[in-house]
Amino acid sequence: MPDHALLLVSSMLVVVMAHLSCADGAVGTGKSKISAVFMFGDSIVDPGNNNNRLTEARANFPPYGQDFPGGKATGRLSNGRVPGDMLGCLLQLK
Question: Gene3D superfamilies per the record (predicted)?
Fold first, then answer.
């Protein structure tokens, strides 16, 4: 099996296992058993946040954040949610 296929299968397995572990009575009640998700990877899963850094590169103005509720720029170098955010929503994390 090629490396990318193994990575894809492993990632899908982790998501399914997390979803199933959350599904036994926690889903629908608003009380998730999972309190945090740690994502490691490149810019696809880490849009960064430089609001507290001394740098000229800023992301606290439009179009950054245009796909978030209210269209507010959050300092993240993304215009919306990334896969980690979507996983957090699926697992009902705040």
Answer: SGNH hydrolase
